[in-house]
Amino acid sequence: QNAVHYARDRRQGRALTGPAEPNEKADTLFVHPDVRRMLMEGKAWTEGLRALCLWGALQVDLEHKAGSEEDRQTAADLIGLLTPVIKGVGTDKGYDIATTAQQVYGGHGYIQEWGMEQYVRDARIAQIYEGTNGVQAMDLVGRKLAQNGGRAVQAFFKLVADEVAAAKAVEATADFAARLERALGDLQASTMWFMANGMKNPNNVGAGAVAYMHLMGIVAVGVMWLRMAAAAARLIAAGEGDRAFLDAKLVTARFFAERALPNAGALRRQIEGGAEAIMALPEEMFLAA
Ligand SMILES: Cc1cc2nc3c(=O)[nH]c(=O)nc-3n(C[C@H](O)[C@H](O)[C@H](O)COP(=O)(O)OP(=O)(O)OC[C@H]3O[C@@H](n4cnc5c(N)ncnc54)[C@H](O)[C@@H]3O)c2cc1C
């Protein structure tokens, strides 16, 4: 939010499409697509991850209070599976967003006076404590995936596939749902790859663990954006709610669909690269340049 205020205030350069405010010496940072990209990344991931945290808290309640034993079990499975994702992806993205917001300030982001470097430093520790994110990823792929014959991950796949199927039938969410379906396909293929290649070499699982955690994070936050987009579209159609707020939700969901969901394919290909290149170098060669 500080970066948003700064971008509205600071004048530097001109809009690519011609001066936005010709009477001023320069336009504000807000006219530059790359500055907007940075601010949109922060907005899309922050709102999506907050929704995922709230969804996780709901699963904790349902684990104890849902009406049937089956529903309590599913909630327990889902929150068990997604806890390392919420922690690991949430804090990795928290740090990324803090440095991206710092970048919006240019040189002012680096120096102490504007306060952004302290946010970056504060965000950094969350990736390390409460289980380093590398160890969170190992918990996900080494323990949570295989538990109870893969019951939890199957429940997650079903949850996403059901929501995708429902959203594909609605015009306002059909495009988002199709893109999320592709990301889900990448997650499922990566899970199968671990099953086929993890037993013969456990390093194949360790080498892909963080990529897999982020891939699952993209899909999980994708579900949250699908829900937010669907809710916004419903309210707009009913003529209810704050229109500017609801329109912003739809635009931010579109940004997530176009900018974050495609990374699922890249992460899948990293996972399928396996451990060979990661494990091949003798230790002393890490010091040779
Ligand atoms: C500011 C601060 C406050 C803290 N507060 C608390 C607190 O209140 N209570 C508390 O109990 N602890 C606290 N800690 C400790 C914190 O939980 C540990 O630092 C953290 O769990 C990492 O352990 P480590 O530092 O021993 O790193 P290591 O375990 O040595 O890890 C080093 C690196 O190796 C990786 N690694 C290690 N083992 C594996 C593995 N099997 N597979 C893959 N990668 C691996 C890690 O991911 C990490 O990148 C705090 C730490 C800090 C810095």
Percentage of β-strand residues: under 5%
| Unreliably modeled segments | none
Helix-strand makeup class: mainly alpha
Number of strands: 0
Query: Given the structure, what is the number of helices?
Result: 12
**Rg from C-alpha positions?**
21 Å
What pattern of helices and strands is seen along the backbone? HHHHHHHHHHHH
Average residue pLDDT: 97
Most strands sheet: none
Residues in helices, as a percent range: over 70%
- Judging from the principal axes of the Cα atoms, what is the shape? globular
Q: How far is the first residue's CA from the last residue's CA?
A: 41 Å
The ligands found in this model are: flavin-adenine dinucleotide
Q: What features would you describe in this structure?
A:
This protein has 289 residues and is an all-alpha fold. The protein has a domain at 134-278. The chain is built from 12 helices and no strands. The protein has helices at residues 2-9, 33-65, 69-104, 107-110, 116-126, 133-144, 147-168, 171-197, 203-237, 243-259, 263-272, 276-280. It is globular. The relative contact order is 0.10. Flavin-adenine dinucleotide binds next to helix 6.
Which labels suit this protein?
mainly alpha; binds flavin-adenine dinucleotide; single chain; 289 residues
